[in-house]
Design goal:
Blueprint lengths: L1 E2 L2 E2 L2 E4 L2 E4 L5 H15 L6 E4 L5 E9 L2 E3 L2 E3 L13 H11 L8 E7 L5 E4 L10 E7 L1 E6 L10 E5 L4 E4 L8 E7 L13 E7 L5
Antiparallel strand pairs: 1-2, 3-4, 4-14, 5-6, 6-9, 7-8, 9-16, 10-15, 11-14, 11-16, 12-13, 12-15
């Protein structure tokens, strides 16, 4: 939410909190550089294929556990081992949640080109109700945060900008959400990302 003092931390729904400008420029630069390495093959960034035969418009690389709709595994579709989730990234997730016991073991790194979006869905392939941490870098987007019942209204549209944190847990952990559009040209090239949007979600798998 915008006030004359800038954007404020807002609880969008119980357990769902938007914290603007949470990442420093240094942290964003480090994440962009790391995402470039994670995106490289093997087990690199690709468009996820859906069982329906469709292909997601975002490109994704997974760390820790590989997500294939609708389950997690230790290897990708072509049999490559999934890249590890580095401790420093799990530490960042722990700091975002503010709970010393929080231990994310999955990162999904999504890249949105200017046409990419993500339909309303729940993050429900994890066997844990621990909060999901979402970090955004690059172009702004319209993030639609809905309800836990279905993909329809009520929802709240939130503009996520570069450096913003969004955490959803508690009663909002299984709320439907999606990205209706990105806003091309709104990112700061100083992050190292010249075009497009990166989103990193950190999750607890509940698997071993
Ligand atoms: O890009 C975003 O902000 C949301 C990504 C998301 O919902 C997901 O990866 O499940
Ligand atoms: Fe999601």
């Amino acid at each position: 939410m915008e006030s004359m003092f800038g954007r404020q931390r807002v609880e969008i729904a119980p357990g769902a909190v938007h914290t603007p400008d949470w990442l420093s420029l240094d942290e964003q630069q480090r994440l962009v550089a790391a995402c470039r390495e994670w995106a490289a093959p093997p087990a690199g960034m690709r468009h996820t294929r859906l069982p329906s035969g469709g292909v997601m418009s975002v490109q994704t690389v997974c760390l820790g556990w590989h997500w294939t709709p609708y389950r997690y595994s230790r290897t990708t579709e072509d049999g490559s081992p999934v890249k590890p989730l580095p401790d420093w990234l799990a530490d960042l997730g722990r700091r975002a949640v503010g709970d010393p016991a929080h231990r994310p073991d999955i990162a999904l790194v999504n890249f949105y080109d200017q046409a990419a979006k993500m339909g309303m869905h729940q993050d429900k392939d994890e066997r844990s109700d621990a909060p999901v941490v979402s970090l955004s870098i690059g172009d702004s987007c319209v993030f639609r945060f809905g309800n836990t019942e279905n993909r329809n209204r009520p929802w709240t549209d939130v503009e996520l900008r570069s450096g913003d944190l969004f955490v959803f847990g508690g009663p909002s952990r299984f709320a439907y959400h999606g990205v209706t559009k990105t806003l091309p040209g709104t990112g700061d090239p100083a992050t190292g990302l010249i075009t497009g949007r990166l989103n990193i979600t950190l999750r607890v798998s509940g698997l071993d």
